């Protein structure tokens, strides 16, 4: 039953990726609709001066003119320039991948020493500790962008990470265990 469920979950994840990256990509590529926050402090009487200023700006053009002559100014947005060149981005990606691989190797090697003392079980390390440590960068990213008031991105990172684990990683482990003939992997993973 877990094998069939895992195959279905992998198909659902594939459909989700197709939906997000191909069929409805324009939904996910839209810029945020939030307005930039003001960082200036509001002083006493600023609200009344602001209201008076708005009244002055709207009333001044109407003196001696009909509403037909008024035109709205359109602000043209400049296209964003990339901060990194393609070569710099690829180099950064390769270097960070190498660092992550080295850190992961050290972490996996330290599991035997950690569980040899008998205080911590291998099941706890594999099912609780490793996923938390492995997703630390995603958690940090979600918290960082949430502090910058970009909640749509923070929720996207958190939900995307959870969906990736639930719909890809766990079912893939079950299917790989099935392929290599390790049925012990199947009962250890709660689906």
UniProtKB/TrEMBL annotation:
Name a single GO biological process: intracellular calcium ion homeostasis
Q: What GO terms are given for molecular function? A: calcium:proton antiporter activity
All copies of domain Sodium/calcium exchanger membrane region, residue ranges:
89-182
Protein name as annotated: Sodium/calcium exchanger membrane region domain-containing protein
State the organism of origin: Penicillium freii
Q: Where in the cell is it found?
A: Endomembrane system
Which Pfam families does this UniProt record tie to the protein?
Answer: Na_Ca_ex
Write down the InterPro entries for this protein, in alphabetical order: CaH_exchang (IPR004713), NaCa_Exmemb (IPR004837), NCX_ion-bd_dom_sf (IPR044880)
Name the PROSITE patterns on file. PROKAR_LIPOPROTEIN
């Amino acid at each position: 039953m877990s094998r069939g469920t895992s195959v279905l979950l992998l198909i659902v994840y594939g459909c989700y990726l197709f939906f997000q990256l191909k069929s409805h990509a324009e939904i996910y590529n839209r810029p945020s609709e939030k307005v930039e926050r003001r960082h200036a402090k509001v002083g006493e009487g600023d609200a009344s001066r602001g209201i008076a200023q708005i009244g002055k700006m709207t009333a001044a053009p109407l003196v001696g003119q009909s509403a037909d002559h008024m035109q709205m100014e359109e602000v043209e947005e400049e296209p964003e320039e990339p901060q990194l060149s393609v070569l710099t981005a690829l180099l950064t990606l390769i270097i960070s991948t190498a660092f992550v691989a080295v850190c992961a190797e050290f972490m996996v090697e330290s599991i035997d020493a950690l569980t040899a003392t008998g205080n911590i079980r291998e099941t706890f390390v594999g099912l609780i500790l490793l996923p938390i440590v492995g997703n630390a960068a995603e958690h940090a990213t979600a918290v960082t962008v949430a502090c910058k008031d970009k909640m749509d991105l923070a929720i996207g990172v958190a939900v995307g990470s959870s969906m990736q684990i639930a719909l890809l990683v766990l079912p893939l482990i079950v299917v790989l265990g099935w392929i290599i003939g390790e049925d012990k992997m199947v009962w250890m993973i709660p689906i």
